[in-house]
Every structure is written in C-alpha cells, then in structure tokens.
Specification:
- With about 300 residues, the protein is an alpha/beta fold.
- The chain is built from 13 helices and 8 strands.
- It folds into 2 domains: about 170 residues, Rossmann fold (3-Layer(aba) Sandwich); about 120 residues, N-(1-d-carboxylethyl)-l-norvaline Dehydrogenase, domain 2.
- Helix 8 packs across helix 13.
- The longest helix has 29 residues.
- The radius of gyration is 21 Å and the shape is globular.
- The chain binds 3-phosphoglyceric acid (3PG).
C-alpha cells in the first residue's frame, strides 16, 4: 500500500504518521528540509511502513497513484496541482485534506476531471490530536474515487469517523460549516467562563477547573472543547501572562459570507468572527484569552505571550 503526502507541517506529519503506523509506504514532500527530516525520523520509528522523501513533485508521481495534499489553502494548493498535473496518470487521485474554500475545490475537481484525474475534497477535523486519536473526515467528490481511498481513510479516521458527504466541494463545505460552529461554540463557552470569573461572583473566585470538571459529567453542554477548557483551567485561571489576541485562518468568515450570500442568518458565528477581529485590534480580554487557548489546545496554534 502506497500513498504520497505533500505538505509535512503539523497536520501533514499527523496524516503520514497514521499511514506509516498502519503499514503504508509513504512518500513525503515538503519545501522545508526540517519537515522532511522530521518525516524520515518518524518513519524510522515504525517497522511496518517505509517513509521515503521525494526531492521533486515529479518524483512523487513516479510511484504513487494516490496523493494527499496537506498544504495551506489558496495558491499553494493550485501551485501544487499545476506542478503535479503533467506527471499524473489517468485515474490518479488527488485528495485535498486541507481547509480549502469549497468553490476552489469545485473548480479544481473540474480541472482535474478534464485530465482524467480524480480530485477528492476531504474536510479533516481533530486537530493535532488526530495523530494519536484519529481524525473525523468528511469527503466530497467522485464516489468511485472515494471507494478507492476508503482503506486509507479508515486508517486516518477514528472508528466511524469518516464518510462520503456529497459531490465535489461538499467535503470542504461541510468542514467550513464545522469550523463556523466551532467558532460559535468557543465564543459561547468563553463568554460563560468570563462571566463566572468576572461577574457577580467575582470576589468569591469560583473555581473554573472544578466547574468544567462537573460539567463534563452529565451536563447538557459537555464536549471535547469543554474537556480542553478544563485542562486549561487546571493549569491557570488568571491568564495574566498571555495576550487576548485571537487569530483566524478564514473559515469562520467564509461561513458568514456563505450565510449572507444565501440570505440565511448566522448571528452567533458572525459575532464570533467579529470578536476575534476586535481582539486582534485591541489585545482582547479574559474571554478572548480563553478562545486563544482553546485554539492552541486543539490545533497547536500559537498564543501570544505578554
Ligand atoms: C481548524 O480547526 O481547521 C482551524 O484551526 C480553526 O480555524 P481557525 O484557525 O480560523 O480558528
């Protein structure tokens, strides 16, 4: 079983790790020498699959008929596809596992289709923890291509954590909405925690670690985000030495744009996006510090120190 992974950042390494661990021979490509050598070292740790570095994208296509892209959304995806295209064979499958905009994925699928290449868009959730735990995968594109890559998807996903959601673009559309929901949920949790910390019971200094622990058991709002919040509060509840600036990579704004385009209300997600913009301009507050820390917990996104 062979597969190529292009883009060996945090998420690409996690994808390669799971495949190698399951006995796949993985060809890796990245522009960074450090990422390539990390990938090779990871391969040495697993007897089952071989990790082989490719020096060029042409090398990648020599021995691989399934190519998994884990590169930043936008131009890097287009550039990678353009460089691969002359070397691909009819029936080859490109999977974009990144956070691409769904309209880009529809365009790329039709470009690939004109060359007899399958393009599958795969929303990948689970953050850096997916490496050990498995991901949740939402797949769009040609159904035959989906069937062909299913064994690899099974290796990457948690049990039951993958499925076909619709035609080209649908996988990334569903992931975009997933991220919009993620924005809204984090916003709601952070607002509540800030009230507990700074509202009517401010002086009593209620214990957020204990409250999030209790909520994890039987409460309506229990969730993985709450579990991560509990981990944060166990370590620190004052959050004095970090900035409240929260970055965003775009999927929240895309969800709001999509809602506006379809004249559908999405006020919760819109406020969450606006709050992050406000935080970036002002340095934010206790509430946005929690959002920044949650993002760090699931995605290893940097938190600015003060
Ligand atoms: C993801 O989960 O895909 C992103 O890390 C979340 O989006 P953000 O980086 O814009 O918060």
């Amino acid at each position: 079983m062979k597969i190529a992974v292009i883009g060996l950042g945090r998420m690409g390494q996690a994808v390669a790790y799971r495949l190698l661990n399951a006995g796949y021979d993985v060809t890796g490509f990245d522009l960074s020498e450090q990422s390539l050598s990390d990938f090779e070292k990871m391969g040495e740790a697993f007897a089952k699959g071989k990790a082989q570095r490719a020096c060029t994208l042409e090398d990648v296509t020599r021995t691989n008929r399934i190519i998994w892209l884990m590169v930043p959304a936008g131009k890097p995806v287009d550039d990678t596809i353009a460089s691969l295209m002359p070397h691909l064979k009819k029936g080859d499958i490109i999977v974009d596992g990144g956070n691409s905009h769904f309209t880009d994925s529809i365009r790329r699928a039709s470009l690939c289709d004109a060359h007899g290449i399958f393009f599958v868009d795969c929303g990948t959730s689970g953050g850096v923890h997916g490496r050990e735990n498995g991901f949740s995968l939402m797949v769009g594109g040609d159904k035959k291509a989906y069937e062909k890559i299913k064994p690899a998807l099974r290796v990457l996903a948690v049990p039951e954590g993958m499925g076909y959601v619709g035609p080209s673009g649908a996988g990334h559309y569903v992931k975009m909405i997933h991220n919009g929901i993620e924005y809204g949920m984090m916003q709601a949790y952070a607002e509540g925690f800030a009230l507990i910390k700074e509202g009517s019971f401010k002086k009593e200094n209620l214990d957020l670690a204990e409250i999030t622990r209790i909520w994890q058991h039987g409460a309506v709002i229990r969730s993985w985000l709450l579990e991560l919040a509990h981990d944060i509060f166990k370590q620190d509840q004052e959050l004095k030495d970090i900035s409240g600036e929260v970055a965003q990579l775009g999927t929240g704004q895309w969800t709001v744009d999509e809602a506006q385009k379809n004249k559908l209300p999405a006020p919760v997600i819109a406020v969450a996006v606006q709050t992050r913009k406000w935080s970036a301009q002002t340095g934010g507050n206790y509430m946005t510090k929690i959002i920044a820390l949650l993002r760090n917990k699931f995605g290893a996104h940097a938190v600015k120190k003060l």
